[in-house]
Amino acid sequence: MITISLCMIVRNEQAVLGRCLQSVQDAVDEIIIVDTGSTDSTREIAGQWTPLVRDFKWNHHFASARNYSFAQASMDYILWLDADDVLLPEELKKLLELKRSLLPDIDMVSMPYHCDFDESGHATLKVRRVRLVRRSRNYQWTGAVHEDLSIEEGGCLDSDIMITHRKSHNDSDADRNLRIYEMLLSSGAEFTSRDTLHYAMELHQHRLYEQAVLYYLQFIDSYQHTVEDEIHVCSKLADCYYHMGNRDKEQEWIFKSFTYDIPRPEFCCRLAYFFLEKEQYHQAVYWYKLAIESPPPVNPWTISNDVARTWLPHMQLGLCYYHLNEYKLSYHHNKIASGYLPDDQSILNNIILLENEILKPAPNRQV
């Protein structure tokens, strides 16, 4: 059986650190917590779980801190998590089984990451990241923000062990990453392709859409990316142009995504909404149905959005069919949507309205 060092970097994570460690403690043989300057009780909480609490003078470079944490490890493999991540009980069982069965030629294990959720708890963004690496390989982190493991070779296992991101409501420094990027820019630092993408995403998140577009386009022009990156950026550019009110450019990037793969559900829903706004309900129905019928991704590294293939298109089909006076079809899709969102009051109200509409007696025919 392999042994595992859990390596984490933290700062002011008193609200979530214990939850994270509680969820994973049974699967790891060593816990290393690197504190980058907490001013709350994070360090004291870490000390309750492990004697291996280390200090790292913050230098505005996440990869440096990650590399320092990895350098402290002594077990066969290194697992990394953020303080607001958790391993759900079923996933913990899978990780324990992996410890017992991991083949000796595996140097790294990737795991799906559910990193964003809607109000009902459905994952709206799923990505995959390498989470477990053989320590003797000495893989290094790169990137000041949104750091990546630099992995050029080695046997990889794409596991189904899911890591869940449970973001703290206390986001006291939401502008931190943006400030770091701007500091790097002002210092004349040269951005890598990944830096350019992540800076664009930070600008996007801060609703600085015009600036975000410029950096997304720079990333596209760099040629240092995968097909999945291209599709992801098409989605981001379409969203930026939507918020900027440029619907022609929004559509341009939707259609651009179709040149890389079959239409993904999120693009189908975006195009359907364009027609819904124009009250072209038959066209909207076509694209919402296509979103539902879209096959699940074959590539495990596909960035996916299950909302766009589940409750969202069903709810919108309910609206389209209502406007088309197809009340039974509207009812059908609202019922499916309610299966995903059983407490959504607007959907429940729709169902009641439609039941009344369907049960209305037919008007008497005039002879």
From TrEMBL:
SUPFAM superfamilies per the UniProt record, alphabetical: Nucleotide-diphospho-sugar transferases, TPR-like
Tree of life domain: Bacteria
Glycosyltransferase 2-like domain boundaries: 5-126
Matches recorded under Pfam families: Glycos_transf_2 (PF00535)
Record's keyword terms, sorted: Transferase
UniProt GO molecular function: transferase activity
InterPro entries in the record: Glyco_trans_2-like, Nucleotide-diphossugar_trans, TPR-like_helical_dom_sf
The UniProt record lists the keyword Transferase: yes
Protein name: Glycosyl transferase
